[in-house]
Amino acid sequence: MSDPVVVALDVGGTGMKCALVRPDGTVHHEERHPTRAERGPEAVTETILGVAGSLAARARADGLDPIAAGIAVPGVVDELNGVAVWSANVGFRDVPLKDLAEQRLGLPAALGHDVRVGALAEARLGAGRGRRHVLFVAIGTGIAGGLVIDGRGYPGAHGAAGELGHVVVRPGGAPCGCGLLGCLEAEASAKSVGRKYAELSGESGATAFDVATRAARGEEMARRVWQDAVEALADGLLTAQALYDVGVVVLGGGLAEAGDDLLLPVRAAVAGRVTFHRSPEIVRAELGDAAGCLGSALLALDSVEGAS
Ligand SMILES: [Zn+2]
Fold first, then answer.
1. What is the pTM of this model?
2. How far is CA 276 from CA 242, 245, 273, 303, in A?
3. φ and ψ at 136, to 5 degrees?
4. How far is the CA of 303 from the centre of ligand 1 (A)?
5. Distances in Å between the alpha carbon of 39 and those of 18, 35, 47, 85?
6. If you measure from the C-alpha of residue 189 to the centroid of ligand 1, how many angstroms do you get, rounded to a whole number?
7. How many A from CA of 88 to the centre of ligand 1?
8. Gap from CA of 77 to ligand 1 centroid (Å)
9. Where does the pLDDT of residue 159 fall: very low under 50, low under 70, confident under 90, or very high at 90 and above?
């Protein structure tokens, strides 16, 4: 019997990270493809199925046994039924990706949410290893979270759990894409940090990472924007801690690239707010942008383990 692997895909608005992953989480082979979401959801779905099929074929050619496939997509995802319910950046509307992948590949398949499977990977293979209650928070263009308890993700009743980015932290604050004002995402995402700095300084094009670097160097406008984002993030994390009481919060996504320039002030701001809460440890993610793909692999492995 040849060694088992799973086919894993992490589909984003601009690119797909794809891999063949062994049951121990090591990667046999990886490749990347553009999503080209502007082609519409049917074409993107066809690309996903084609890439998954060629990865399964590659596994067999390498003498391995593909046993399942896992696919992660952004948006609202019904993991139980394997349906990509809604996605703003890929354009999915009720696409039954799990069934489509099973038909195309002749393998069991699992569908997950990009950030929640990333949380699964960080909790089991990354910065949350060995911890029972882990909250992963991805801070990039938007902000989203994933709660993992005893190695299992929590999807919610409608596949929409973990939307920490839409917790209102500044009532009446900056307008959010969701229609509310003052959501965490509108106050502390990488995108909003860049926007606020541009408004204040008149200089467009500075990224959140630039703002963090300039703040660390003592530039006053950058320091104000960065500190505002840190305070908003701390308010959001305190709300999450009141609800979940996790042992560790893992900060990932593009903004976490700021490293200690983010971690140290966030830790201080959370510590300054806790009252009855037990403080979580706050650490940086370890898996970088591989988390989603590894998490898809874990989801696929879990699905065949659960079925056997
Ligand atoms: Zn919002």
1. 0.94
2. 9, 11, 10, 38
3. -100, 130
4. 32
5. 20, 9, 11, 18
6. 11
7. 13
8. 18
9. confident
Q: How far is CA 256 from CA 139, 200, 204, 266, 277, in A?
A: 7, 23, 21, 11, 24
Q: Out of 17-26, 63-72, 83-92, 131-140, pick the least confident.
A: 83-92
Kindly give the distance from the C-alpha atom of residue 167 to the centroid of ligand 1, in angstroms, as a whole number.
Answer: 7
23: number of Cβ within 10 Å:
16
Between CA 286 and CA 290 the distance in angstroms is: 9
Query: What does the block give as tokens for 152?
Result: 């299992």
Q: What are phi and psi of 77, to 5 degrees?
A: -125, 120
Cα of 29 vs centre of ligand 1, distance in Å, is: 37
Q: Supply the pLDDT for residue 132.
A: 97
How much distance in Å is there from the Cα of 240 to the middle of ligand 1?
16
Tally Cβ neighbours within 10 Å of residue 33.
Answer: 16
CA of 145 to the centre of ligand 1 (A): 13
Distance 142 CA to ligand 1 centre (A): 9
Q: CA-to-CA distance for 213 and 38, rounded, in angstroms?
A: 34
Whole-angstrom Cα distance, residue 234 to residue 229?
9
Residue 149, SS3?
A: strand
Structure tokens at 272: 């300054």
**What distance in Å separates the CA atoms of residue 114 and residue 130, rounded to the nearest whole number?**
22
| Cα(52)–Cα(122) distance, integer angstroms | 23
